[in-house]
Amino acid sequence: MRNIKKKSFKISPPLVIAGSFLILIFIGTLCLKLPFATTTPISWTDALFVSTSATTVTGLSVFDPGTTLTVFGEVVLMILIQCGGIGLMTFAIALLILLGKRVGLQNRIYLQESFNQNSVGGIVKLVKLILTFVLTVQSIAIVIMTLHWLPKFGFTEALYLSVFHVISAFNNAGFALFPDNLIGFSGDPIVNIILSGLFILGGLGFTVVIDLYQKNSFRKWSLHTKMMIIGTIIINIIAALTIFLLEYGNPDTLGNMPLYEKIMTAYFQGVTPRTAGFNTVNYGMMEDPTLLFTMMLMFIGAGSASTASGIKLTTFMVVILATIAFLRQRGEPDLFGRSIRLDTVIRSLAITTISLLLVTAFIFMLTITEKIPFLPLAFEVVSAFGTVGLSMGITGQLSDLGEVLLCIVMFVGRIGSLTLFFLLMKPKKANYRYPYDQVFTG
Length: 442
Known about the structure:
Layout: H1 2-8, H2 13-33, H3 44-55, H4 65-68, H5 71-86, H6 88-98, H7 105-114, H8 123-153, H9 155-170, H10 189-204, H11 206-214, H12 223-247, H13 259-271, H14 288-300, H15 313-327, E1 334-335, E2 338-339, H16 342-369, H17 374-385, H18 400-415, H19 417-424
Antiparallel strand pairs: 1-2
């Protein structure tokens, strides 16, 4: 009986992670449906969609949050974003620590799964460092943004707007309280630098930030940290330069801006598809090559164990390195004098393959349910999967079924395609191996 009791309460970490997000989405939906949460009544489907979008830190919305939500509704949105970005389990463990309670082994395992750690050792200390880092960075950013917006909005409104947009930016949510998102601030260097700095920091991954804090030398950094730092710098430079060149003459985006504003806007729109979701230009007016390039950036995403989603930058880099190793006829991919294990390569290929299949499947389903052109629909699905929140302006045109389908995409994108796979299937390690045979490929 004791063994049965123990077994009945044994819940897998992926199930706990997925369950915590579902609970948060459910609570958020109920709160947003309250009469005093909105200025005008919204449907249950709309409440579910926006709650899912906030919890998964996506940023897609079927209505304008700044005009539709009351202060209560906006505060609910902020709480969902903060809990969804850092993780409900993290806050739950932090509460246990504050109450002086012991964090058990099972809870440590859940945290290990949440932050993609190799062991449970030092996981509680990691949580403390992460929360300290989050509160410190957000507090500094709030002070700077409040002082910057003070002359324009007054102290109370400037402080409120700063808190909302800092939380939204750091957690890579992309929700804004302005009707045009951040288009009105395309030439504002403080808004561009502070908010982009926040979502880049949030997208690096908490383990990378802690590694940078504890080790002051590039040589001492872990391979993961080196890949994230170098990869982030390279992809951001390429993205900003590509968007600058593609949109330079487009009168509906960068074309009519002065040079300094073109550079700033191209930089911001180059880094924001890495799951941030803010926009300082109208994506519905962008050139097709720019939109396709942006979809690639959204699919890749940012860092593992971060507030961002997508297949993750390191996953993309491992696939590229594995391809290079194959072409060079090397047994294993390597970088910075370190080899990458074969199981990491296979995991990266599995994540990429499953993600591509999921995105393709949902694009196919939405082309059936919605009477909307293909490119905007494909853009919307990739944005939802990467929990980015960028849109070509079709979110409000989706049917109820279309909204539900996108909710599923956002949820899967946030918990991760492999987590979904482990929830649906029970993989078992085989204790046998079949003989090899020849298969022709390519």
